[in-house]
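User: Can you fold this complex?
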Amino acid sequence: MRQGIDVELREVGLRDGLQNVDTFFPTVAKIEWLKAEAAAGVPEIEACSFVPPKLLPQFTDCLEVLAEALAIEGCEISALIPNLKGAERGIAAGVPVLNYVTSVSETHNMNNVRRAPAESVEDFARVVELVQSQPEGKRPRLAAGLATAFGCTLEGPIDPKAVVKLAELFVAAGCDEMSIADTVGYANPAQIKSVTKMVLDAIPSDMPLALHLHDTRGLGLANMAAGLEVGITRFDACLAGLGGCPWAPGASGNVIMEDAAFMLEAMGLRTGIDLDALVKVREIVEINLPDKALGGAFAQAGAPKGFRPASQLPAAAE
Amino acid sequence: MRQGIDVELREVGLRDGLQNVDTFFPTVAKIEWLKAEAAAGVPEIEACSFVPPKLLPQFTDCLEVLAEALAIEGCEISALIPNLKGAERGIAAGVPVLNYVTSVSETHNMNNVRRAPAESVEDFARVVELVQSQPEGKRPRLAAGLATAFGCTLEGPIDPKAVVKLAELFVAAGCDEMSIADTVGYANPAQIKSVTKMVLDAIPSDMPLALHLHDTRGLGLANMAAGLEVGITRFDACLAGLGGCPWAPGASGNVIMEDAAFMLEAMGLRTGIDLDALVKVREIVEINLPDKALGGAFAQAGAPKGFRPASQLPAAAE
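Assistant: Here's the predicted assembly.
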């Protein structure tokens, strides 16, 4: 965790938010979005996905976007990789953090990457080898992302033991950090606490663990607060809650970045984010996705009268 | 708490949800709504407000609505009273629970009922006297509602000590139960926990304490989950999140009943509510408020695959 920040929010809108959007979000606008959000203080941004461009044409401009993103100071840039091929591309592009995503749900993983989860870990082990074969200073950190960890639209409930087992496999294979994802918005606060605690108990105590939450059924922020209760301090979020199904307008995608940042700042937890500047970034999304209904209660309602965000309070001695 | 229920959700849409709606919601539709929601298993409904009809014409049909509401079996009916006059009307109507609402914010209370909060408690003491002078069996329970307990649009932050002081005054004056309200959606989970704990410490341990939450900045359910963390098991909510400002469509009013019930049931906490039946009640609101955008993520997304609500699981030994 960088100094002066209590909870790290990572913007995943440029990846998870855009991957289901058919409209091509112009490259210059992606770069504008990245820069504006970094300038608002967001400490980490997942800038794109190395899923093959023929599957997700939204990311054909991945290298152009990354070239600009990596030049931004003070904001960590990551990218999603689905397999070894993606890792090769990510390393070549010089991305410092690569997120390798595998579904705990066997059916979901088969559908997504045509492999069983355990086979994905074998592929991941080859990614680790590849990274270790790079010269020092050119080795990205590898994050293992455990998708559908709280339920799956294809399989329904997911056994927490399967989450723990997959987490252990990834640790054994050599991941540097981990995230567990409520990919389809099935989780509830009690489940977040119990599953997250099980995973925390199974992985090394110094391994960063993040939560990736969706707001599909309105529980995104309640689940984030539940994560805080068990000590999680790293969360993914999307500006305007992008990432939802196109037929469900409003707050039904990823947990909403502006509302999450407001909640944390109101709770006295510093995110390093300037809320006003963050809300302004919505304009870039609005202009480029004019048919998309943007989610976000804080952006609509504004700050409470007399509100003092934690990041703007006099710093306590650290 | 009635048998077989872990958390009690009270529908306040017919009061808080409608009080800012200019369109008169037809009396028959109010009654239809009440009956449908009681049939869906909602254990308590605040059916109307005894604010003078010239101030809130929405409630001119209060007595007609109550006559039908009080005939419903298995659902507790309550009504809001702003003053002694309201109490007289409520007692005459035979309402079993009367909610006397006072703002912790002096400015807000002056604006609402033209009295300082402490003067409201003096008025409340006369309400208690009036109730005690009634023949046994005709004495309603009196709930004290502490509005703007987590912040006020006029005053900004509210000192938790003022909340505790007002709570103590109401206890001394003889209230039977209490609720603390985030009237304008300013609260955050950390604040909910700290203020609620302070109030719990100040009131008798056997006095029921409820939370009344708004979703204005998206934190409604996170705040409800925070309330659960400190032992609160009674919450107000509004079908479709009614109660928001007319210019902010969607999830910006009271905490959304359907999403709240889903969250609790998913957490293994029985509400006694049938979620499918509850979602159907929205049709009554849709038909009668066609221009109102209804909030509610659960109603849009539906239940997770394989979802088993707590109320439908085999009962554990009690």
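The longest strand of chain A covers residues 97-103. Chain A has twelve helices and eight strands.
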